């Protein structure tokens, strides 16, 4: 997605149901039908766009010839030699950035970039000055090719979308050796590099793969597509597919001058190539506003790959800046990248509490018993990208923030993390978030006596080689009322999250 602009916010009333258009190409014998439509908040009379251009004679489509049948599909590539395990050097990152926001956004890149390890390029529109000291912490910086010859006719978007959609091809043309995957992201995307590798390891890089995820916003996915990988959340393209894309991308983007962004242009070309999106739920576009707690507190049982729109949402740790908060989260990533923000549930039956752990980030303690099927649903602490959309506006289930005075969760954010060599476990100290709680009439124990939750866990680097499963969580005995000890790890045989 365009890193300098948010996607347009369409007015619901301006959506016309039958906004389709035809373009009959006289140059060719065949006609092409398009149903791309553009939503406009400003002009109700201007929401129809006909973006498809005639194919040039060079890109003629083959008419099926029954006397001369199409050749059989190519056999899959030989796999007599199993490829070596995927390593960081096999991945080339292409980061779309803009000079106007560079000073702020480069801080996000520095957070996850690993000098001398990660490979890739930041693509900018204009030269920026960076000190030698700083350049050591950042990828190489390049200026994107001139795109003035391409047409761009979308009224809400920006021309930079053209430049950004060509990041994949431009990164490929650099000819880096041993690249298996190209991974694209914006300058406000933070990647968990180990999990990028874990996810991509599942797929054969010699085949065609387009891997990413949709938007959280159902409305966004209707306007763009559920079949599109959102650019800010990041997406991966296997090497042979990137080569195929590079060959046709410039002519492909000429055919869609009316599209909004860079990622919908990539999607349009992928659709022409016939390669579908492979969805991985760990890529996060985060098309939301406000507090990410609901989403980060109830992540799907899949590795966290990326976070995006970090300037748009609140800082993820209260009291810390955006960058400091992400830094703290990445400290947990260092200890156990596989398990970062993996959710597990505990019940303290004596105190009548439900506890939800988002490992390495936050522990939420709630009065009463809330079932796992509810706890695994994100609470709507965040706001929809489309301000008028309600709970129906999401592409997944959510639950409301509890309104009952007794049910407001007590939050304990990670404050420090150490590794206990002797016991070979990670000791996380989560401190109570200082906020007021309404008066509660329930007679059960109040979590307000707790100041600290300590979570013990062993690192579990192989968890994604097994079938996905939540960790189990147990409440350990504690001698102090102000401290609660939790253990999080693999479930024992027969162990379930009992209410
Ligand atoms: C891009 O190309 C156009 C014409 O081909 C030229 O007028 C323009 O100055 C170029 N822009 C840059 C930034 O080089
Ligand atoms: C761009 O648009 C103009 C006017 O609609 C058209 O004449 C021209 O051929 C287009 N250029 C490309 C490269 O599609
Ligand atoms: C919690 O916040 C209140 C009001 O903002 C403040 O008076 C109090 O000292 C804080 N307590 C702690 C432990 O920080």
Q: Would you tell me the overall average pLDDT?
A: 87
What is the C-level CATH assignment of the largest domain?
Alpha Beta
In angstroms, what is the radius of gyration?
Answer: 25 Å
Share of residues in helices: 10-25%
| End-to-end CA span | 43 Å
Fold-level CATH name of the largest domain: Spore Coat Polysaccharide Biosynthesis Protein SpsA, Chain A
Count of helical regions: 11
Contiguous low-pLDDT stretches (5 residues minimum) are: 10-64
How much of the residues is beta strand, in percent?
Answer: 15-25%
Q: How many structurally independent domains?
A: 2
Give the strand line-up of the largest sheet. Answer: 13-14-15-17-18-19-21-20
Q: Which CATH architecture of the largest domain is right?
A: Alpha-Beta Complex
Helix- and strand-based class?
Answer: alpha+beta
| Main sheet: strands, sense, barrel | 8 strands, mixed
Small molecules (ligands, ions, cofactors) in the structure: 2-acetamido-2-deoxy-beta-D-glucopyranose
Q: What features would you describe in this structure?
A:
There is one protein chain. The chain has 499 residues and is an alpha+beta fold. It folds into two domains: 88-285, Alpha-Beta Complex (Spore Coat Polysaccharide Biosynthesis Protein SpsA, Chain A); 336-489, Distorted Sandwich (Cation-dependent Mannose-6-phosphate Receptor, Chain A), CATH 2.70.130.10. It is 18% helix and 21% strand. The protein is built from eleven helices and 21 strands. The strands form five sheets. The protein has an eight-stranded mixed β-sheet with strand order 13-14-15-17-18-19-21-20, with helices on one face. A seven-stranded mixed β-sheet has the order 5-4-3-6-9-8-10. It has a two-stranded antiparallel ribbon with strand order 1-2. Helix 1 (102-112) packs parallel to helix 10 (322-335) and helix 7 (239-254) packs across helix 8 (263-273). Residues 69-80 have a biased composition (Pro residues). This is Transferring glycosyl group transferase. Pfam families: DUF604 (PF04646). Residues 50-85 are annotated as: Disordered.
